[in-house]
Amino acid sequence: xxxxxxxxxxxxxxxxxxxxxxxxxxxxxxxxxxxxxxxxxxxxxxxxxxxxxxxxxxxxxxxxxxxxxxxxxxxxxxxxxxxxxxxxxxxxxxxxxxxxxxxxxxxxxxxxxxxxxxxxxxxxxxxxxxxxxxxxxxxxxxxxxxxxxxxxxxxxxxxxxxxxxxxxxxxxxxxxxxxxxxxxxxxxxxxxxxxxxxxxxxxxxxxxxxxxxxxxxxxxxxxxxxxxxxxxxxxxxxxxxxxxxxxxxxxxxxxxxxxxxxxxxxxxxxxxxxxxxxxxxxxxxxxxxxxxxxxxxxxxxxxxxxxxxxxxxxxxxxxxxxxxxxxxxxxxxxxxxxxxxxxxxxxxxxxxxxxxxxxxxxxxxxxxxxxxx
Length: 373
What we know:
CATH architecture of the largest domain: 3-Layer(aba) Sandwich
Shape: globular
Protein name: GNAT family N-acetyltransferase
GO molecular function, one term: transferase activity
Keywords: Transferase
Number of domains: 2
Organism: Sphingobium amiense
Oligomer: single chain
Low-confidence stretches: 1-13
InterPro entries: Acyl_CoA_acyltransferase, BioF2-like_GNAT_dom
């Protein structure tokens, strides 16, 4: 359903966040960014009015799919209008929520709705999809079944943590002895400066103070200087506060901090969904960079994750070839983008076919030119 009205309006007698939570709890693929804990605050604070189209796939009275979409005026460097999954600045995974066992049915309904939607221009561009996940399989199978054009247009690998080893065995297996020795030295030097305490948030009453400490720590570093820290933009800071509160209320917030004499010098925020978790953001005291506080809190995070039976894996959400996390986590997650053809009648259908063909031809030409260099 294309919801032109605000996305929190009730449908079929059930408020949107409630039915979305029901779907999220039975989803085929974890995505904390599209679960209500993060999606509802993002819609409230980060989306412009009318910007996000919430596409819902229904089978009778059962919601089996949820896909947030936006219109885009460009596709990479091409001035082609298209539709894309909503990846706001704090969203690092773009897999729609699909009811387990109904994945291909949900994708067929998504595409049927987009074919019929007059506002859906060009083609569908999907980012942040796990190449080995249920969405990727359902997308490809649906396009093949419908004889619908599609292309995988980009892929990269990013670090993830998925291991049956305990934290100490994983640390020993993954990190070189020389580096482990250096990090133990840094831990000792930091402890010489004062009392070092690392802890996991377990008191709901402490959350507001922890959120403000994180925002302040992030703003004091290079992000604050560049104007990209969440505290630089009140709507982004409010999204963070509300998302953390919602996730904590549902038992899905995983937040750590490292203090030196009671002052936060490193903090890390993870959001859980199903049996997995997504590493959202890290903030450090950059004046203590010589002690590698980011690495030290990641060591604490490793112990917290591997010691929690409810967390089977964690996605780093990091950029490819990240120098820090890639050296600590051995596993990798392949992230892909898709371009999918949309259909239609008359001029709208022609425009969609032309846009899809132009994008494909431009990509093919770019690859040929790159190969000649």
